[in-house]
Amino acid sequence: MTGTEDELARQLRLLFIKIAPAIKTPQPKPMNDVSMYIANNQPPAFIYYRKGLCEHQKLLAIVHELTHACLTRPGSGGDEEEYERQEPCSNQAAAVICSTYGISDYRKVMRSLTVPAYRFHGGDPTTIELMIERVGTALEQPGVFPEWANPI
Ligand SMILES: [Zn+2]
Known about the structure:
The structure is a single chain. The chain has five helices and three strands; from the N terminus they run αβββαααα. By secondary structure, it is mainly alpha-helical. Strands 1-3-2 form a three-stranded mixed sheet, covered by helices on one side. It has one domain (5-138). The chain is 48% helix and 8% strand. It has helices at residues 5-19, 55-69, 80-99, 106-112, 125-140, and strands at residues 27-29, 35-38, 46-50. The termini are far apart. Bound molecules: zinc ion. The site of zinc ion has 5 residues, from helix 2 and helix 3.
């Protein structure tokens, strides 16, 4: 599958319309982190991105958060330590997903937003593959409610 950045933006918009009862459309928020996924104790889950990000940075951040979301059901509470452990996987998976839409500067953009270099290395290959599969498929078929987004 190949596409363009515009197509990625469009697929994301459609996907968030589809999954709105489970995961709300990402919102800006003043914060130090580039973005965050909040699974919540009851649905819906939330995604926030740092206020002031440009459209390009925002797209990358949202893809990143979806890689967490696809392993952490809305309403499941979530676990900060688990997200931290997932970071290398999330970054590598998000870089691959973005590259299928012609975006080749994922790492560069995240590094420029002060994401530390160690968060791009290591990570369980099976988890990376799973993230790519789940988020990639959801973006290719944004009209289909993905199983992983079903609230607990
Ligand atoms: Zn993350």
